[in-house]
């Protein structure tokens, strides 16, 4: 069974408070983008994971194997072999590990005919990571609580330029340094997106910490700003920066100006369902 699954960006991210269990309450707008990993799942005599990316662990710490272990413990599904083709950059603020876990849960649910609902999978997924429930829903969502309180929103069609300089930002380190706490921009942002705006009200309460710990990201941000985007922001804990332009032509021009200067410069697009439940048309 082959499952192609996408990464995400945080268009805007606010940290509300730290809970006693160490998690942080957040208010964020998560957006699925068309940068995909591919996970192949097969029945096997022994559970194992192969990956084509050297920085992805293939031991029991990997969220794919943890997802399998969680389902096996509950339902006795038996062994499975996983092969992961990694295209979502690692340590990039795009939720690649959580996307992989969600893909594993969906795939194992189907392969072993468990018949679990999306809500039941999300309950298990939350034990693996706060972003996993979002990847079981996808599209455009406001996420609150620790990320599990999801409000799906109608998707919008927009090209997005993603730039990553290869920095592997450590989520724990960024949170430990300390987030800012700013008033939520999410209600205004939702209104702007649905009106088709490209100049967006966004904020990332983790950007200051990420810039301090990884100064290279700040330098990369300045280079992206030189292409005059309408909106530019760091996604999650970094290191991926997203940029939005008034037209596709401007986005392509910015891509060409930055391509080859950084390990990842990708012109992609938002993904999800519109108000009628149909997938939005592709931009290109």
Biggest pleated sheet: 6 strands, mixed
What is the CATH architecture assignment of the largest domain?
A: 2-Layer Sandwich
Q: Class of the largest domain, according to the CATH hierarchy?
A: Alpha Beta
- Stretches with pLDDT under 50, minimum 5 residues: none
The separation of the N and C termini measures: 27 Å
Q: Share of helix among residues?
A: 25-40%
Number of helices: 9
Taken from the alpha-carbon principal axes, the silhouette is globular
Brief sketch in words of this structure:
With 284 residues, the protein is of the alpha+beta class. The chain has 9 helices and 10 strands.
Description:
- With 284 residues, this protein is of the alpha+beta class.
- It has two domains: 2-152, Ribosomal Protein S5, domain 2; 154-269, GHMP kinase, C-terminal domain (Alpha-Beta Plaits, 2-Layer Sandwich), CATH 3.30.70.890.
- 32% of the residues lie in helices and 27% in strands.
- Helix 1 (63-75) packs parallel to helix 2, helix 2 (96-111) packs across helix 3 (118-128) and helix 7 (207-213) packs across helix 8.
- The protein starts with a strand and ends in a 15-residue tail after the last strand.
- The model has no long low-confidence stretch (mean pLDDT 94).
Q: Which SSEs are present, and which pair or pack?
A:
Blueprint: E1 2-18, E2 24-43, E3 48-51, H1 63-75, E4 80-85, H2 96-111, H3 118-128, H4 132-137, E5 140-144, E6 149-153, E7 159-164, H5 171-177, H6 186-194, H7 207-213, H8 215-225, E8 231-234, E9 241-244, H9 248-258, E10 264-269
Parallel strand pairs: 3-4
Antiparallel strand pairs: 1-2, 2-4, 2-5, 5-6, 7-9, 7-10, 8-9
């Amino acid at each position: 069974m082959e499952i192609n699954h996408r990464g995400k960006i945080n268009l805007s991210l606010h940290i509300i408070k730290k809970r006693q269990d160490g998690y942080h309450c957040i208010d964020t707008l998560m957006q699925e983008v068309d940068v995909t990993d591919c996970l192949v799942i097969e029945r096997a005599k022994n559970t194992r994971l192969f990956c084509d990316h050297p920085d992805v662990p293939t031991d029991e710490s990997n969220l794919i194997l943890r997802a399998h272990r969680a389902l096996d413990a509950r339902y006795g599904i038996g062994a499975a072999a996983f092969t992961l083709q990694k295209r979502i950059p690692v340590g990039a603020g795009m939720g690649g590990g959580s996307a992989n876990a969600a893909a594993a849960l969906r795939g194992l649910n189907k392969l072993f005919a468990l018949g679990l609902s999306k809500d039941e999978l999300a309950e298990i997924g939350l034990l693996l990571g706060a972003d996993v429930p979002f990847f079981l829903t996808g599209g455009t969502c406001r996420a609150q609580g620790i990320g599990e309180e999801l409000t799906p929103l109608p998707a919008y069609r927009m090209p997005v330029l993603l730039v990553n300089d290869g920095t592997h930002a450590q989520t724990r380190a960024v949170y430990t340094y300390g987030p800012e706490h700013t008033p939520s921009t999410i209600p205004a942002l939702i209104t702007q997106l649905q009106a088709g705006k490209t100049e967006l009200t966004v904020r990332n309460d983790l950007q200051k910490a990420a810039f301090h710990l990884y100064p290279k990201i700040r330098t990369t941000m300045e280079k992206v700003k030189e292409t005059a985007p309408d909106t530019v922001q760091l996604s999650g804990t970094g290191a991926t920066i997203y940029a939005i332009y008034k037209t596709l032509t401007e986005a392509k021009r910015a891509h060409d100006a930055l391509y080859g200067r950084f390990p990842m410069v990708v012109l992609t697009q938002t993904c999800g369902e519109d108000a009628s439940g149909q997938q939005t048309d592709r931009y290109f």
